[in-house]
What does this fold into?
Amino acid sequence: MHTVVYIMSSGTIETKCFCTVSCSLQHNAPAILAYLFPPMNDIVLESIHTIHFLSDSPSGQYRNKSMFLFLANHLKIILQNYQEVGHGKGVPDGIGGVGKCTADRMVAQGSDLPDMDTLINVLQQNCLGVKIFSLSKTEIEKISEVIEKWKVLPVKGTVKVSKNLNRLRL
It folds into this structure.
C-alpha cells in the first residue's frame, strides 16, 4: 500500500485521499514512482503551483537521484519535506492504517481475502473517502526499465540531507 493525500487551498480546502495497492513488495524509487502515477493522473496538475512531498526520508524511496530527476523534470515547483525516519506521522500514514485495519477487521469477522482483487473490493466498499488503485508487478518493472535507461548520476550531498536534518532536531 502506498498512500497519497492531496490538499488544495484556493479559498476553500479540498482534500482527496488515495491508496495504491500492489502485490509487489518493492519499495525502491521505481516502485514509488509507479505508486504515485495513478493518484497524479487523477489530480489536475496544471492548476497546482507548488507541491509538497512529505516523507520520512528513506533514501531508497524519495531521497535519491531517480526521484530527484523525475520530480525536477515533470513537476513545476516541488518542496520535499523530510520528517524523522519512521511511520505514523501524517495523514498518509493514517490512510494506510485505516486500510490495514479494515482488512484485519474483515478477516476477523470471517471474510476471506484470497487475492488482490478481493482486497481492493473490500477497501472500496469500506473506505469510502479513499480512492483505491491497483498496480501490477509488471507496471513497476516497466518503470524500473525506464529508470535504468536514464543513466542518472548520483546527486552529491544527498546522504547529508538526512544527517543535517537530524542535527537540527537535537
Q: What stands out?
A: The helical segments are 29-42, 65-74, 91-108, 116-126, 137-150, 158-169. Residues 2-169 form one domain.
